[in-house]
Write a structure and sequence with these properties.
It is built from nine helices and six strands. It starts with a helix and ends with a helix. The radius of gyration is 20 Å and the shape is globular. By secondary structure, it is α+β, with helices and mostly antiparallel strands. A three-stranded antiparallel beta sheet has the order 1-3-2. It has a three-stranded antiparallel beta sheet with strand order 4-6-5. It has helices at about 5-15, 20-25, 30-45, 70-80, 85-95, 100-110, 115-120, 145-150, 160-175; strands at about 20, 50-55, 60-65, 100, 125-130, 135-140.
Length: about 180
């Protein structure tokens, strides 16, 4: 598989800016091979829906500007719909256990939560922040969500302390069994 395709797949999977040096090391590339692959990727993406954004030290895949009206219409449509059971479940996990990674949410729910997380972010209910200590993105409730719920801190949620004690004990039991 051509290296530009591998880089595109990696950037798509990560869906966030990635350091060039990480990509070079991951695919064991020379600077010249990396530069050629990036040029090929940019050229190939020129007529598609995605574009490659390049800064001095990072790369990221984004949608092209021409997609904005279509995306805006889809976003409006999504915002009108109910968040559903899966959205409420995911939101509860983030409210009570956040900040929490997607992998942790998936483990609790037992299914992939990517679509639900994106939907909740689009609505402004949650936010994603990079945690350098763990080198992972974690999700937490936005201040707008807390305000909508009429609280100023997570610990004001119903049974917050009790729920977290039960969840901590449950997590400890699972870790002990494994």
């Amino acid at each position: 598989m051509p290296i530009d395709v591998l880089i595109e797949g990696f950037l798509f999977y990560k869906s966030a800016p990635q350091k060039k040096q990480v990509i070079i090391k991951l695919f064991d590339l020379t600077e010249e091979d990396f530069s050629n692959a990036i040029s090929a990727l940019k050229e190939r993406l020129q007529n598609g829906a995605t574009r490659l954004i390049e800064t001095d030290d990072e790369l990221r895949l984004v949608l092209c500007q021409e997609m904005s009206p279509i995306i805006d219409e889809m976003r409006k449509s999504e915002l009108k719909s109910d968040i559903g059971k899966a959205g409420a479940e995911t939101l509860a996990i983030i409210l009570y256990r956040g900040p929490v990674s997607r992998a942790e949410i998936d483990k609790i729910r037992g299914v992939n939560s990517s679509f639900i997380l994106r939907n909740l972010m689009v609505r402004g209910l949650i936010e994603r922040n990079y945690h350098k200590k763990n080198a992972v993105y974690k999700f937490s409730a936005t201040t707008a969500l807390l305000a909508h719920l009429g609280i100023t801190e997570k610990n004001q949620l119903p049974d917050f302390v009790n729920f977290n004690n039960i969840a901590d004990n449950f997590s400890l039991e699972i870790e002990t069994k494994n």
